[in-house]
Write a structure and sequence with these properties.
The protein is mainly α. It contains 13 helices and two strands; from the N terminus they run H-E-E-H-H-H-H-H-H-H-H-H-H-H-H. The chain has a two-stranded antiparallel ribbon with strand order 1-2. It is found in: Cell inner membrane; Cell membrane.
Length: 295
């Protein structure tokens, strides 16, 4: 029988030395850029950065008085909710189907994980080609049943395109956690419910899904943050925020106003607001939604 050995040290600086790399990375790549964005959001400067004026919170006042920004917030809400629901529901369906397999489970899991290695911009280009009105295969098939697809002109078509592309990129990530959660559920509970006469759907919604709540809660937070922050490449490669700003979500509006419009103060204010929204959503989810999670 093997016994575990515990190592102790009398060095007072060793714990700090072990934490130092992570703390330094956090300060350089997270805290410092966030503080610079907060400072720049209170400045007004010309596009060349030759003259700056401290204007306090005027950038934020102008921001919330801008109807285009309010429309962008609504677009972001629709896009984030749609992407999260689609990605999580499809990945849960795949995980349930793969978990029922015995021999070919590992093979299917491997194929379903591959799309996660694709960069967001590449995923956007891939779906852009598939839905291209001129050369895409799906518009050709939809035209055969009387549906004219053109995401360059129709805002609803553009939103569907970016939601599908963004969700497809995230399905693999969700699938791994759902499959791990399903495999950790004791089969004795499901077998006992089956002996008692519970149907397959009732066993899933009363036993399996509640036991998946930790993974579901974690993925809910991750997917919302992903939809609001990490989908810039998808939007840029597919619609570039169009048509008529129909897919111009907040993270892409920061880029357009800052790097294309050279309105650096407004762009910094938008990034601060976006960061605040994500922080509030995360706090709300951990504070109230987590209470319904069964660990």
């Amino acid at each position: 029988m093997q016994t575990k050995r515990m190592t102790f040290t009398n060095s007072r600086w060793l714990p700090y030395a072990l934490l130092a790399p992570q703390v330094i990375i956090t300060l350089i790549f997270f805290v410092w850029p966030a503080s610079q964005a907060l400072w720049q959001s209170m400045l007004r400067q010309d596009p060349f950065g030759l003259r700056t004026t401290f204007i306090w919170f005027r950038n934020f006042e102008r921001l919330f008085a801008d109807p285009h920004y309010l429309v962008s917030m609504k677009t972001t809400l629709i896009f984030s909710v749609s992407t999260t629901l689609l990605a999580m529901s499809v990945s849960l369906l795949f995980a349930v189907m793969v978990n029922r397999m015995i021999r070919s489970r590992d093979g299917y899991a491997t194929f379903l994980v591959w799309p996660y290695a694709v960069a967001p911009a590449v995923a956007g280009v891939l779906w852009w080609f598939i839905f291209n009105p001129s050369i895409g295969i799906l518009p050709y098939m939809l035209g055969g049943i009387g549906i004219e697809w053109n995401h360059r002109l129709e805002s609803s078509h553009a939103m569907i395109l970016v939601v599908i592309a963004a969700a497809w990129k995230q399905i693999s990530y969700n699938f791994l956690f759902f499959l791990a959660g399903l495999q950790s559920i004791p089969q004795s509970l499901i077998e006992a419910a089956a002996i008692d006469g519970a149907s397959r759907s009732k066993r899933f919604w009363t036993i399996v899904f509640p036991l998946l709540s930790p993974a579901t809660f974690f993925l809910l937070v991750v997917n919302i943050v992903y939809a609001m922050f990490d989908t810039f490449g998808v939007i840029h490669a597919t619609t570039e925020g169009g048509p008529a700003q129909a897919t111009n979500i907040l993270v892409y509006k920061v880029y357009r106003d800052g790097f294309i419009g050279n309105n650096l103060g407004s762009s910094a204010a938008q990034s601060v607001v976006l960061m605040g929204i994500v922080i509030v959503l995360t706090v709300v989810q951990f504070r109230w939604i987590e209470r319904r999670v069964n660990y």
